[in-house]
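Hi there,

I know you've been waiting on this one. I reran it after we fixed the sequence typo, so this is the corrected version. Both the input and the resulting structure follow.
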Amino acid sequence: MLELFLMTQQGAVSSEQLIWTGAIILLIVSVALFFYQRKVGRGLASELEQLGKVRKHNVEYELVLKVLKLCTWHIDVAERTITYDTDYRDRSDCFMPAPGTSLDELVAVMAEEDQPRIRQALDDICAGRMEAYHEISQVKIAHGSGYYWTESYAAVSLRHTDGRPKTIVGTSMCIDERKRMESALVDARNRAEESDRLKTAFIANMSHEIRTPLNAIIGFTGVLPEVEKESERQQLVGLIQENSQKLLQIVDNVMAISRIESGKEPLVKSSFELNELLHSMATFVAPLVQAGVEVSVQPASEKQTVTTDAGRLTAVLEHLLTNAAKFTSQGSIVIGYDTPVSKRIRIWVRDTGRGIAPEHSGQVFERFFKVDEYIPGTGLGLSICRMMVASMGGDIGVRSELGEGSTFWLEIPVE
């Protein structure tokens, strides 16, 4: 009986020990699970926080792309293909290749003068010969004609273990507006430089043109008191008067140019009979021509009423007829006009004088240009004619052959 009791007590102790052992193990496992779950929770919270940052970064990234109006793309170096990822450019006709388009196809849509340079730059960055890509080029407009300007940047984003480029990422933007501004600035600079050059040439020529008659006036005036013979005195007086008139003409021409360029002399339009004006011009030039030269009028109709600035038209015709009289020693000088077309009329002065060499035809309307330096004149007359005709909304030109005479024409609108 005693032995049986002892065995029962030992069994109870063993069961209790097992229970306590199990409880302790369960407690330890529970504590371990608690800390593990806490660690996992912290990890999840960190990952969620990082995910939130990534999402925020992506939103900010897209916002920057939209604001800068960029498109993004990547190049698979092994396949030599390009894939556009996003496009926020403000042009709907930009080139947008299909995913996996070859680099050769990309280069083919660019302007011919840009293709060699772009192809070489792409080859260099794909081969690892340079770290970054920055090029400006013209690209054909999609589904249309013409080109637009684009500026692209790129860099290597992934490399093989040996350092060779694997993937290249880049961005592109349209820069048409910038190019227009650059072109406008270049044009403004060129105009400023040309204006400065013309101003310098104008001052130099004016100095020469004014000094020539002024020297004659001063020189002859200084000699005049010492001359005793009346005939010689009269000759000197005549030369002084002639050079004074030249000097006055130079000043008048310069003032005329200044008034026209400043716009302070507005057009004064009026209606008048053109045939009457041409006959009065023929009367004006008749005393100026050399003996044997015939002056005539050749109208296109018996009556032709025009509406324009009569004063400026008269001044232009006076210049043209005076020049014709200077350079025509025999033959004729004819002033006339053609039948108006589309409310524009062409008036011309034709002479049988010495004519103008082809290389000088484009220069005769420039300031101070003279075909013959020995013929009296300042070289401003035709320049003033061109400015006056332009102010009337017209054009002026010349047809001439050396030794065959010249035809100066002006074409102006007539209401």
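Quick highlight: The chain has eight helices and 13 strands.

Best,
R. S.
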